[in-house]
Amino acid sequence: EKSAGDLETMQGIKLPITVNCEINVLLVAVTAFGFLTRLYGIQFPRAVVFDEVYYGQFVSLYMKRVFFIDESGPPLGHMIQALGGENYHVMSPACYFSTHYFNAVLFTGYLGGFDGNFAWNRIGAEYTSNVPVWTFRVLPALAGSLCVPLGYLLMLELGYSHFAAVGASLLLIMENSLIVQSRFMLLESVLIFFLLLAVVAYLRFYNAPNGSLCRWSWLILSGSSCAFAVGVKYMGLFTYLLLLSLAAVHAWHLIGDKTLSNPGRRHVPPPLQGKVLVQVTVRLLALVVLPAIMYLGFFYIHLTLLNHSGPHDQMMSSAFQASLEGGLARVTQGQPLEVAFGSQVTLRSGSSKPVPCWLHSHKANYPIRQSLVVVSPPRPVRHGDIIQLLHGMTSRFLNTHDVAAPMSPYAQEVSGYIDFNVSMPAQNLWRVDITNRESDRDVWKTILSEVRLVHVNTSAVLKLSGASLPDWGFRQLEVVGDKIYKGYHQSRLWNVEEHRYGRSQEQRERELELKTPTYVDISRNLTFMAKFMELQWKMLTVRNEESEHKYSSLPLDWITMDTNIAYWLHPSSNAQIHLIGNIVTWTLANFALFVYVLLFLTYLLRRRRKIEDIPKASWEQLVLAGVICSGGWAVNYLPFFLMEKTLFLYHYLPAVTFQILQIPVIVEHIYTHILRSPSHQKAFSGVILAALCSVYLCYCTFCPLTYGQPELTSKQLASLRWKESWDILFRKH
Hints:
single chain, alpha+beta, 11 strands, 46% helix, elongated
């Protein structure tokens, strides 16, 4: 028998319990079309397509946990791609936890079974059976598909109608260039997805009522998406800065909102006085602090996973290389930490440009002049000590004097001293200057210390000039004494890599010692922050030698699509895939941008004259849409004019995505605020319908070049060359 308390509790519950669910059929429909256009047949072709040859190499290195540097961007994009081919490995429990934790965050499990064994050496190479093509391509395809509903939601958050939202979605669905870039193991679709998600989430936060608890979750999602965007490619930074600027303006307006707080009035309750500070602080944490922590986290996982020596080791410092398994770590294991008088060392330049360089000489006979053994206990070399450097194989002292260097006449010649009876005495004394010392009596440490060697007689600093010597110098890099030195420069820094304590003064025994390390267990592991800072600096400053590419282009070529890229060509037929956009959409986007600028300037000037053509709310809506769409186009396009790198048409895709979203903004504004007459609006609707039909026809026309099938005849391919600058490939049978 139930108690009275139980009955009262049950009476407080309303039965039956129901859940209301609203489904936006339009949003579902455009999302379905987005998935269809991006996911259909992504396994075709089963061959390497354009930059898959580039990104695939990094995936293979991830599978083998081999360290690499990609100067084009942070590691998150490669980690996402590696998820598609991840396989189980035997590893330590700590690494096992780190790997599985990251995979759980980004995906529910391992998708493929790729072992990393594939030669990514040429475009068009057929994939072997061990390469999971579908799983490699599905993540970029999913990201590209989800850009369609994000475009729809962005229009709604900007305050425009569902008609405008559907129009934006249709334009994105039928954009051939976005389809092509989404269907392969490339990163632009992933970048665009996170950029749109960050903007939509922030606008959802901005438009949500103040009392809503889920409002702050949108802000956190926006900050996280910004971190993901920057983590995929550095170009995401510019949209992030645009969003930060918008958030800063909104925060400034918030501070001036007297309805929230006014400390000068005593009747304002204390909770309201602190509300502004709380809201501004939360914005700062979500949009600045959280992305910074996440960005560090990407590199932490990257460096944790890639702990084996690889092809890019020599670009890093000796300390960084020694922290990796294999390579230099295998050579330097067990070396003494402190350099002592009599130590046998190899000196590496702190600069890796143009290539890593070690202080080197050539073999010749010369008498030994002084003791070359380490006393017991060792007498360490400290900052400020005067030393001589003797080449172990030639017995010549490192020397410089006031004679011009052969390739760098502004600097002094550096050589192994030989007495040719020319009344030029040896000048082979060098002062040790430890630049990263903690005190003035710091000991010179193997690998860890960065040292400048200052010539005692002339005050010149031992420096790698970067110039190559002629044939008589074996084409090796020139080392000079630099008398004009100011500030910090890596070419003047040296560090000890290999190190052992000398035990004999005999030439033959000393040569044997050079090949026999002294085993002393010393830990030289760098902290994560030290490795992060070095890796970040290398990624931002080190650039591979750029070469002209057949399909490289200039930013001015992108606006009118005067260029294209052949992504793949069938080895025996005319089937091919090209990066070519929907030229009708791109033309409309350029026109929409021009109209927006014209409207904005006109309204701005007239409002300055106190003439308000449109309501204040409509003006603010137009300005916000311009910041997002036109501003998004500008920040993703204009920086390329300042970049000294090989550029391609796909670099323009983030910018053109925002530019396409400008089209429905302008269309709805013209329809609502400029065309007052119903007859004019009806005629304009016909123009809109005709434009959409033209976009569809253009999309269908170029579908064979977008999907690579069906195969076209040479005559059909020639008819698709709408511009003389396009490079359409076809075989004449």
